[in-house]
Amino acid sequence: MGLNMEILDTSWTEKYRPSKLDEVIGQKAIVERLKAFVKSGNFPNMIFAGTAGVGKTTCAIAMELYQDHYNEALLELNASDTRGIDVIRGKVKEFARTKPLSGDMLKIVFLDEADALTTEAQHALRRTMEKYSATTRFILSANYASKILEPIQSRCVVLRFKPLKEDEMDVYIKRVAKSEGLTVDDKATKALIYVSEGDLRKLTNVMQGVAALSESITEANIYDIAARARPKEIISMLTYSLSGDFLSARNELNTLILSYGMSGEDILLQCYKEALNLEISDKLKLRIISTIGDYNFRIIEGANDRIQLEAMLAKFALLENLK
Ligand SMILES: Nc1ncnc2c1ncn2[C@@H]1O[C@H](COP(=O)(O)OP(=O)(O)O)[C@@H](O)[C@H]1O
Ligand SMILES: [Mg+2]
């Protein structure tokens, strides 16, 4: 299978980033609130909190205040620029200090991944927020609002973004598929949703990677690209071992390692995910999860993947007596 390099030329996450709040999928309460802010032309400092790929940056960019002037009114800083105090003292202060475009236009500083800022930089940020509060608003994005200093939090409205739901991801998949002329069947849709775990950036990247391989997005290609197992092999490996059938479990393990090229850590992560969904007693689930934790630690410390995974399956097989 050859790679279609043309498809890899553009970034689909940028190509499919909504440019209007109306195109944002899910996050309904937040979008409504932002629209109201845009309409009124005034808004508070905000923290956009939530996991990766759920629309934080997108919403900040899509606010479309002041139509064509939005670019001039917005200072956008990425995590890589913003770790230290110099950026806050330099770029941010410089931007906040210069005159607004016209009398009552607020300037906006969007600090992506603000939880990566050093404490020192956060203190400088707080002072800057205070000093320019008449003319400038700050939007901070963060995985966890709690990682932002309390005195900053208390100056901001916290908007909590949620991981996208399955039906919302489905809408997005259809949007991209239609625009790219791709066929995505039900199984492939399920697989895309499974591997991306509510993260639309991850989903977009997997779709783009698979599309570069072929026009039809298949379940197998998705799992290849996502470097993850099909859940059914993980489940059957776990089920065999828990029923005491070590040899069959070991066969499934072989498939995962040899055919899918999965690493020990990948396999453990999948086992962990699937163990939570198995129809077994809570007590057994706890034992499985704590066992996975032990083996994960050993593998991370450098023990042989293969031996550790087999030992784990053997341990699960012995747990059978405890049911
Ligand atoms: N709610 C959403 N609606 C539509 N597309 C989204 C949404 N969230 C994420 N995306 C897609 O994922 C990409 C990354 O989203 P982004 O807003 O940068 O995530 P983050 O929350 O990490 O800032 C976007 O370019 C877009 O393609
Ligand atoms: Mg972001």
Explain what you see.
With 323 residues, the protein is of the alpha/beta class. It has three domains: 14-160, Rossmann fold, CATH 3.40.50.300; 165-226, Helicase, Ruva Protein, domain 3; 231-321, Zinc Finger, Delta Prime, domain 3 (Up-down Bundle). Helices cover 57% and strands 9% of the residues. The protein has helices spanning 5-9, 12-15, 28-40, 56-61, 70-73, 79-82, 85-97, 119-131, 150-153, 166-180, 186-196, 200-213, 219-225, 231-242, 246-259, 264-275, 282-300, 305-319, and strands spanning 45-49, 74-77, 107-111, 136-142, 156-160, 183-184, 216-217. The strands form two sheets. It has a five-stranded parallel β-sheet. The chain has a two-stranded parallel sheet with strand order 6-7. The two termini are 47 Å apart. The model has no long low-confidence stretch (mean pLDDT 88). The structure holds adenosine-5'-diphosphate and magnesium ion (MG). Magnesium ion binds next to helix 4. Magnesium ion binds at residues 56-57, 112, 141.
Topology (SSEs and partners):
Blueprint: H1 5-9, H2 12-15, H3 28-40, E1 45-49, H4 56-61, H5 70-73, E2 74-77, H6 79-82, H7 85-97, E3 107-111, H8 119-131, E4 136-142, H9 150-153, E5 156-160, H10 166-180, E6 183-184, H11 186-196, H12 200-213, E7 216-217, H13 219-225, H14 231-242, H15 246-259, H16 264-275, H17 282-300, H18 305-319
Parallel strand pairs: 1-4, 1-5, 2-3, 3-4, 6-7
Helix pairs in contact: 7-8, 10-12, 11-12, 11-13, 14-15, 14-16, 14-18, 15-18, 16-17, 17-18
The chain binds adenosine-5'-diphosphate (ADP) and magnesium ion.
